[in-house]
Amino acid sequence: MIKADIDKFKEFIRQKLGIELPDQSDDSLQTFLSSRLDDVNQNTVSEYIKRLLKNNYQKEEFKKLAEAITNGKTSFFRHAEQLSSLCTIVKQLAPKWPTPLNVWSAGCSTGEEVYTLAIALNERGVKAQVTGSDVDGNAIETAQAGTYPPDKLKHLEKDLVDKYFVRQSEGSYAVNELLKTRTRFLSHNLVGRTYPTSESGWWHVILCRNVLIYFSRPSMSRVVEKFSRVLSPGGLFLLSPTESIHGLFPQFKLIERNGSYFYQLKQPGEQLNGTELNDNGTDALSTHIGGWPSVTTAADNNPWSKPPLLDLSEQDTEPQGSTADDSDGGGTAATHVVMDKRAIEQAIDAFQSGDRDDAIMLLFKHLKKLPQDFIGRMTLGNALTGIRDFDGAIEQYLIALDIDPLSAEAHFLLGMAYRKANNLEPAIREMKNTLFLDKGLWLASYYLADVLIKAGKKNQAKNAYENTVSNINKKSMKDYQFLSYLHGMNDAINYKSDIKLLCVKRLRSL
Predict the structure, then answer these.
(1) d(CA 190, CA 215)
(2) Contact residues for 236 (Cβ-Cβ < 8 A; gap 6+)
(3) Which end of the chain is more exposed for a tag (fewer CB within 10 A), N or C?
(4) How confident is the model over 146-157, as pLDDT tens digits?
(5) Domains (ranges, CATH) in the chain?
(6) What is the pLDDT of residues 103-132, one digit of tens each?
(7) If you ran DSSP here, which 8-state letter would residue 337 be given?
(8) To the nearest 10°, the Cα dihedral for 169, 170, 174, 177?
(9) pTM higher than 0.70, yes or no?
(10) Cis ω on the peptide bond leading into residue 405 (within 30° of 0)?
(11) Is 201 helix (H, G, I), strand (E, B) or coil?
């Protein structure tokens, strides 16, 4: 899909929906278009626009389009898996935080996300006060009313509807008193100089999903910077699953739970390695939690009904986050300590000498003694891939990801193992996880395109091939330890100009 197609569709959106989409929304729009073209069996953007204009098709498709490109269209339990993972993390941290937890949904539209959070956290036994804000005053009025037509609740389980909503005489549903007491709403402009705070001074969780794509890059950086000033150290910042600020803001640490990614604000002066939150719920930031700053405010006698505002205008200096247009959004390749260098070297030497069974036996023996050795797990995964034991390799890469869930290299090699086992959907997922963590790892884009072709998703494959060409042109890959001698990767890396030509050739054939 070429830039002219994206621009043509953006102009169509401007004319029909009145929405100006900035250039940084191009990637998200391209992803949406690729997916929709596959779903409706259209080959070009022009064909899709014609289909949108058909009277018998327009309403439903425009609904999908508006929901994809704006934060104005929302629903209860949107991105349910991500919310479930968020609640798991919050449940782990809740004992270390003051009660109630303070949650802010920035850009909440008509309130479904706010009530969803209140429901989901209450179901986990976590008492939280959830604030929703939006620049659209009409949307805030709808959210405050808390009354929704039946179709808005159609994806909710019946027991949740019965527990948290009251059916009205005209057939609509109103949130009950519990949700009313756990939520509040206010009009707020994220580009303004003041930001709301909780009574304790800071927010424990901030969500800003499908909002930042409408900001210019400098404005986005300023907004995220301001979020970091009202978010507690150790607090969580959440974007939608398709958005990423990974590697752009050093004050945040990326963490992963069940395939969902979150940003955790570091403590001042604390250097953290790996993921902060352990499976048992302990975390490296908990020592700070409990002593929250107060914010002087002229709020009325009910501070919960009107949140204090913190003036950030004097602090509105150059953001710490990168604003370079060519940033790949990824961190540096992680380094891991070799727990037993001699054992790993012996296994590698044996494997390269052709004694593959001996090499694998040495690695299993080594990992029995040191089961948390990331490098040992990755090496064994590579060795098992080399003998085409893909199920065994997948198991080792999954264990490696338990040790370091933010390793782009481990996600990539897991995706390669799934690909060779012809397990397409997990392969697609892991290649996308790789690119979320490191957009510059262009081999992931290349093999993602290959898997998408096999899955019959040719428009998404076009997108992946185009991204491969773009990333080959922009930058070299980071120095990843395990890619240089596996699957012929060394040849692929050294002959990237040939890979680029192959991508161009395949783009012409699609």
Answers:
(1) 10
(2) 86, 89, 90, 204, 205, 206, 262, 263, 264, 265
(3) C
(4) 999 998 888 889
(5) 3-69 (1.10.155), 80-315 (3.40.50.150), 341-509 (1.25.40.10)
(6) 999 988 889 999 999 999 999 999 999 999
(7) -
(8) -20
(9) no
(10) no
(11) coil
